[in-house]
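Let us practice reading a record.
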Amino acid sequence: MGEAKRRQLAGQTQALEAMVVDTPGGRIHVKWDHGASATPNAQLTFFSEFLATTGVYSSWVDSCPLSYTSPNAPSKQDVLGTWLLAILAGHNRYAHITGLRGDAVSPQILGMEKIISEDALRRSLSRMSPEQSQAWLVPQLLSSVHTALS
């Protein structure tokens, strides 16, 4: 057996083993199934690893001015996680969020308990004034591009 064949065999063996990915929801083991059908959120695990490693996601959630006193209110993590998943899925209307609600894996990856309804998301985001939203989001945006611009 030649050197090229050994490398190819080693690569195939590694591809069959599960990869360990650290996400905001904890450690996830990813194993490729080449025979399975594709999912629109297949790369979410790797994107969330980037968000967890850089601290961008936790900073975004922690600095959000939303706060609730009711025990029945959704968590800030669930509100912002639902919003992020909707954006990543290409949704531009609240009504499209209903299509995400059956997904049981994506909330786990982002450390959420559940995907909230579009009505709950709309009510949550409307609790912030435009000034609060701007004071929260502008520094987040600027910190994400600051290094590239300096």
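A brief commentary: The first helix runs from residue 3 to 16.
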